[in-house]
Specification:
about 240 residues; 11 helices
């Protein structure tokens, strides 16, 4: 057999097209319709997860989500016992962010919120000032009963809410990103309270009214709590 008969026609190797097509599809920017569809699915999923813990309060939940997605702050106004604190803490768990709560009282000081400088001894024996971060250094800060503390302490949140930073002494500290303040207040009790000034109210995007649950929702809360199956009942 001659050498020419042993030669086989060369076949060019096949080039896989699927990875290239997938890469082009991944590199293609999403359209506005696709982004809105994805955003709607995320909102629905977050409402579903909150519904596993909170019965009812759908308008409150939707306004809270709207404020979070637009990087705004909220003021929840309602009587005690309407799951305001539980709603905020559950929202922080869903978002997987750091959550801290401050109980505002008449003797609360600004340093209790933003932090303070303390005199500390280092390893060489020298004394230096060290800044101890306050609870404002978190992603979601719950200011519980904010109208129970004097205006001096209320104003400690002004710079944090507007500039996302706090100044202690001569040093300015950036707050974590994202940063939200969700405050609560009881509209019924007036004795021993300090109404928020207009400059403070202007920092909140929404003033959300938290109302009583309906009779059916109260029965569902009572039934689920008594049986210890609250999460399963709330999600049904």
């Amino acid at each position: 057999m001659s050498e020419s008969e042993n030669l086989q026609p060369s076949v060019p190797p096949s080039i896989p097209q699927a990875p290239k097509a997938a890469a082009r599809a991944a590199a293609r920017p999403k359209s506005i319709a696709e982004l809105l569809q994805e955003f709607s699915q995320i909102c629905a999923q977050m409402e579903l997860e909150l519904g596993k813990v909170i019965v009812g309060q759908t308008p409150v939940i939707r306004q809270l989500l709207a404020a979070v997605f637009t990087r705004g702050h909220c003021l929840l106004e309602g009587v005690p016992g309407l799951a305001k604190t539980l709603t905020v803490s559950t929202l922080a768990k869903i978002l997987d962010v750091e959550f801290k709560r401050i109980q505002f009282t008449p003797d609360l000081m600004p340093s209790d919120i933003v932090g303070t400088n303390v005199l500390d001894d280092d390893q060489t024996g020298r004394r230096n000032f060290r800044f101890v971060h306050g609870p404002v250094f978190s992603n979601i800060l719950l200011a519980d009963e904010i109208n129970r503390t004097p205006p001096k302490t209320q104003s400690a949140l002004l710079q944090a809410m507007q500039e996302r930073e706090v100044t202690v002494g001569q040093t300015t500290y950036k707050l974590p990103d994202p940063f939200f303040v969700i405050a609560t207040q009881n509209p019924i009790e007036q004795e021993g309270t300090y109404p928020l000034p207009e400059a403070q109210l202007d920092r909140f995007m929404f003033n959300i009214k938290v109302d009583y649950p309906t009779l059916e929702e109260e029965e569902q809360i009572l039934s689920c709590s008594a049986r210890g199956e609250f999460q399963e009942c709330a999600s049904s």
